[in-house]
Amino acid sequence: MKFNSRTHTCGELRESNIDEHVVLNGWVDTRRDLGGVIFIDLRDRYGITQVVFEPNYNLEAHNIAKDLRSEYVISIEGRVRMRPEGTENPQLPTGSIDVMVDRLVILNKAVTPPFPLKDGVDINEDLRLKYRFLDLRRPSLQRNLLLRHKIYQVARKYLDENSFVEIETPVLMKSTPEGARDYLVPSRLHKGKFYALPQSPQQYKQLLMVSGMDRYFQIVKCFRDEDLRADRQPEFTQIDMELSFVDQEDIFQIVEGLMKSFYKEIKNYDLPTPIRRIPFDEAMETYGSDKPDLRFDLKMTTLNDVLSKSTFRVYQDAISKGGIVTSLVAPGCGDYTRNQLDVLTDFVKKLGASGLVWIRVKEEGLESPTVKFLTEEEQKGIIEKLNAKPGDLLFILSGQKLKTLSIMGSLRLEMARRLELIKPDAEPALLWVTDFPLLEWDVETQRYYAMHHPFTSPRIEDIELMTTDPGKVKARAYDLVLNGSEIAGGSIRIHDSELQSLMFKTIGISDEEAEYKFGFLMNAFKYGAPPHGGIAFGLDRMAMIFAGEASIREVMAFPKTASATSLMDDAPSTVSEDQLKELHIKIR
Amino acid sequence: MKFNSRTHTCGELRESNIDEHVVLNGWVDTRRDLGGVIFIDLRDRYGITQVVFEPNYNLEAHNIAKDLRSEYVISIEGRVRMRPEGTENPQLPTGSIDVMVDRLVILNKAVTPPFPLKDGVDINEDLRLKYRFLDLRRPSLQRNLLLRHKIYQVARKYLDENSFVEIETPVLMKSTPEGARDYLVPSRLHKGKFYALPQSPQQYKQLLMVSGMDRYFQIVKCFRDEDLRADRQPEFTQIDMELSFVDQEDIFQIVEGLMKSFYKEIKNYDLPTPIRRIPFDEAMETYGSDKPDLRFDLKMTTLNDVLSKSTFRVYQDAISKGGIVTSLVAPGCGDYTRNQLDVLTDFVKKLGASGLVWIRVKEEGLESPTVKFLTEEEQKGIIEKLNAKPGDLLFILSGQKLKTLSIMGSLRLEMARRLELIKPDAEPALLWVTDFPLLEWDVETQRYYAMHHPFTSPRIEDIELMTTDPGKVKARAYDLVLNGSEIAGGSIRIHDSELQSLMFKTIGISDEEAEYKFGFLMNAFKYGAPPHGGIAFGLDRMAMIFAGEASIREVMAFPKTASATSLMDDAPSTVSEDQLKELHIKIR
User: Fold this and answer.
1) A190 and B584: CB-CB below 8 Å?
2) Tens digit of pLDDT for each residue in A418-465?
3) Bridge partner residues of A399 (DSSP)
4) What's the predicted TM-score (pTM) here?
5) Are A261 and A306 within one domain?
6) Is the domain of B335 the same as that of B386?
7) ipTM of the complex model
8) Which residues in A lie closer than 8 A to residue B245 (C-beta atoms)?
């Protein structure tokens, strides 16, 4: 089992190394026997090098090599030679050389893996997760973890250069369930008391601003005990930052510099800045989403003005109740069959629409079962406003504003998919969505809720509206959107206790409740809090998009399943009665 | 509340800025009123700048300035001027200029802090922890957090440059209590099951080696629910690494390079390498510790050979039972009073010694109540062997080997303290302690235990001893010691399943128990595990030593108390019955 340190990795040898005596260590990737000569592709993280066992060259090594199987771990020593003409492999960086082996040590044997350790093979994901230590040998996962490594380094280098201080905040903190559920940790020393794992370091980072740290960042694990629909994980990673004495524009500048670094260092792409900014209202009206995908155009158009005098009940109703009539042109889809249109109608109905108005644009005008409800003038107005061409298909949806826009936004994405509008080589589409509403009205409880969190600052010019028309107040909140996914979100915070009181009053939180829930932060604000704001990146999702993967599990070393279990080590698991006793808890 | 972005920080302005119009934001550090002129020292993380309010220069600003109190947050605009001759402050980098203010905005008021936000004031630590957000405004804590920031950046840059991949391992993992207690997290989705917070990512990093990642690192939070005697924290930070295809020497080289970087970047000190290596046995015999402080010399000397024929029962006993007689010279302490000697005797007795032999060295020979038990030849032998000089004081302890050496090691530290042997400007004393015993014999349970953990590899040349004389087997384990503190520890791991079985057998772990406790790692080893090893730094302790602090709490932003509570937010705390119900647990 004695072996020598490698002189090179398996991705390193070139023609310039010919005749050198080298030591390589790695895994047997493939083995071929050709006329008594054994060829091994020797693999490590850095690449693959062909090594050759010839009985005439070294009989002993050749004899041992007969035992080699895939995934055996070996150490070889030998001489680098030019590959014989015609046997070069231009696919491999090392493909013009191989190594004639004169010493072979088998460092470890391997049983046959439960699935092929190659890319492009369809393997059951549960099996992959159970054998994650083997799954991670596959080239795509190795690449993804290296990409993630790169993201960490680029982020920290950039933030360090911009005077941010990296500070670790506690993982064992106080439980303050807001929105999502906390993971709890029973205390052994304090019977009946619990720590919580942080959903984010929000309060700590605000405290660090109060403490004068000026610029904070941390790449940090956060935890949410939610039902893991779709692509969530119980633990996820944020690039978290907070800055003092800043306005929204300062944060945009910092973040845009960071995005430029990511694209330059990771994709060698010069990201143009400033990044486009779209207010929430416009994003909703034009794209039907607060995280619009701008890799394709396809805009929605509001028809309230064109149809303001419509006698058609549906539009009349929507407009008179403060709702919206929105439309979308599907270019060249005028020949969609009735069946195709039914499928799309079902699509929007599943999202909560009562129906879908579709209109074919013909040379002679609009054609649709509902056209009869529109006056000539209205029909002309629609064609003009939408710049509709013969052969196009129009969709119209009407109803309560945000809901209707959001359904049309989903239809927009669906049409982009059908029309293949997102090109594989599309440039990244980044944008800021700004001017979110500060508050959301909840019909059920008849009160306002903070759309982000209650520490988000209103726009200064809107403060008066907080008492007169709270629903109209815009927040100093912003999301960064990449290719239709929110990759970061943040806000300028309230730092003034009077404004904070007003905010609590507006969302119906009493002084006592505010004290109980947010007391220690409120208290800190009394001792001189600077204006401050911040942002947090969802690192997993961003890495996923950079890697071109469809799931965040593909960019995490050891992810959990949708039911929050680790198939590899079987966590969570039962624990001993003694452990529970020490923690003063029992199973109910 | 509208304010302008700062043009400079408070540490930035110099003579070259004179006559510039600038904006500064920050905290009121101190305020002085001199003949109608108000001077404010304005503070932020970057420094202090004096700003001046003169009624003749700007009456409005001067009027507002009358309201300013310490720790108010303000924004000022004004003109930089040379300070009037005789009023320069050479202590401040900005001390040759000040700023004549023509606009002042009070961004936030502040109530009086509960303690002065200065260094060098003795403040109750509980009060400091309760108001940690204010405590963190003190210069020493700001410095310490910046130093810690630097450690992170230097470590990652170095490891990145050396082909290490940063990989995040799960925080919610399987409970495998070994030694210390796990923190547990009840699962909501799986009734009666629990996650555990990692005591270290040991198993994950070994799996990453199996997966071929080759070189892994992570700066990672770890958790131990121990009784927090002395200077422990429930959550602490490790610089964790693991490398494939390496031997101990490779790890030493990597770590020595890292330490060189730390000292160069943080202390601007060229650390000489290689770092000294001392085998465990020698460290114990010479310094009575496996983490000796080498900032001072003061060596212990074993007297077994000189006293091998002693007729004095105490020495006879110790030597014949395989124990040790060890000695220490306290230079120039021959005039210690009886009282002083009694105090030292008490000191060693508290550590478990039965007594302390002390001997004064005189011109005419040794003087002590116990000298009569030594022959002339033995006395001469001792003087020669210890190179003792008249005026010196000798200590002798005898008994069971490791225990006796360790008590003398404590006395060595105590004498160094009394003799002030550790100079404030002492060069850092780094060393590797190597060749630890693999196993410890436990008298009570009459079995061997792994001294590190059961995956630590024995020295290859000692494998045969594992069946014949396990107590003699040395491990491929190593600690890095700085100024008498262990700052890192690690080992080469077992990667061969046969050797692993032998190890389990030797420490009396059955196949079933091994499967239950270490099954998923054991299983992974079957699929081709490379030789690998690693090391983990205790970052908190290292930062503490670099900062010259006496407690790790001084280098953590939000530490907990000795009873694992956070005095600032009162964690742990009670949670709602609903939360517990959802987690299927109740308080017992």
Assistant:
1) no
2) 999 999 889 999 999 999 999 998 888 888 988 888 899 999 999 999
3) A324
4) 0.95
5) no
6) yes
7) 0.95
8) 3, 5-6, 25, 75
